[in-house]
Amino acid sequence: MNNAFDLSASFKAYDVRGVVGETITPQIVQAVGAAFVDVQGLAGQTVLVGGDMRPSSPEFIRDFARGATARGADVLLLDLISTDELYYACGVLNAAGVTFTASHNPAQYNGIKMAKAGAVPISSETGLREIQALAEQYLNGAGFDTVAQPGRISVRDVLADYAGYLRNLVDLSGIRPLKVVVDAGNGMAGMTTPAVLGDSILPGLPLDIIPLYFELDGSFPNHPANPLEPENLRDLQAAVIEHGADIGLAFDGDADRCFVIDEKGEPVSPSAVTALVARREIARAKAAGEQTPVIIHNLITSRAVPELVEHDGGRAVRTRVGHSFIKAVMASEGAVFGGEHSAHYYFRDFYNADTGMLAAMHVLAALGEQNRILSDLAREYEPYFSSGEVNSRVEDVPAALDRVRAEYGRDGVTVDALDGLTFTSDDGAWWFNLRASNTEPFLRLNAEAEDLPTMERVRDHVLELVRK
């Protein structure tokens, strides 16, 4: 056998990401389409296939469809979609699906996000490795046969249904008028924002939307579609100030993450957004008769989140970092909502999947249902001081962790190993987490404290130990 194809460079823990023409090609995509159907047992069933605005996405959609139909699945082409549109479609149609996107990665990349029926994620632990292995077998062997009854291809646009579904979950029609700057980063939010928040499909809302980079352009001519990097928020921050806007929203390339900017041009932390949405979802669930609604948060969100959840009569459940972990716990706990520091927000009413748009609608509702400015509203959800995520390149990660444990693993400090190491002072004054990257020689530090000097002291001391 000629082992020319090794897909390990593009198959990641949660999805597929590769350089177009190198680690992701039409031939590879066709084999992955066939393997997807075979591994998931989808012959005779419908598979949903869509993609983002990257130039390679339309061709890859067709190639995947060829592989999938050859192995007996019917393919429903959703064509141009955001990632949360795929999750909506997988949920409402109860069908497995894929979307071609590389999220916030640069223009030369593309990839595949996969989900089972009901929007259940497919990760390396739930089928992705088997799909990789079978695709490699097809590529390195004699290929795959076309079954006696190949599947058929049809087309469906789900944008209007998706927009209507979100509008039914959060009613914005009665809020006070708000001026909203939205930076789509030339990504899919340039299509979904007018549909959900504007009047392109549904009746208009009391929102004055000021568009920034709504043109769908997978070459990202203005800035990378990665709002996690502060420099990519600068245009939005300037536009909020220039227009005297009430709020700014920034989406990543495939629009499954949303970042929030207040009226002063300052970022509202994803932890604060998590707490704000959690409060609304707890109140709604309790009004519907749920006694103790469950809220999921990963271990590096602010401790303000579990404190608020408990205060409001919910139950906070802490998880590892990563969307497949959160979605699994969302399902097993019957959680109403979950949030991550990376601005992924998960909703039970959205098939336990993440959607940046629905989180944005909750923030708009919370802001528009009262008269305070966003910076005042957000302040009650950000009582602590956070370092943000600080990366250190470390050649010997275990040795660095041992140095920190030797210094901080003492009386008066609790240590747990749910995901990396988390150190928490027993008096509640500070905590920090150190996690090793899965793909690079990095240690990632997140620290938080009751006051800024304490946070800076802990942060700087831990970094000194790590970087010795």
TrEMBL record:
Keywords associated with the record: Isomerase, Magnesium, Metal-binding, Phosphoprotein
SUPFAM superfamilies: Phosphoglucomutase, C-terminal domain (SSF55957), Phosphoglucomutase, first 3 domains (SSF53738)
Record domain Alpha-D-phosphohexomutase C-terminal: where: 389-464
Residue spans crossing the bilayer: none
Pfam families tied to this protein: PGM_PMM_I (PF02878), PGM_PMM_II (PF02879), PGM_PMM_III (PF02880), PGM_PMM_IV (PF00408)
One MF term in the entry's GO annotations: metal ion binding
Signal sequence, renumbered to the chain: none
Cofactor(s) listed in the protein's UniProt record: Mg(2+)
A GO biological process held by the record: carbohydrate metabolic process
Positions of the Alpha-D-phosphohexomutase alpha/beta/alpha domain: 10-137, 162-265, 273-384
NCBIfam families to which the protein is assigned, alphabetical: PRK09542.1 (NF007088)
Protein family (similarity comment): Belongs to the phosphohexose mutase family.
Protein name per its UniProtKB record: Phosphomannomutase/phosphoglucomutase
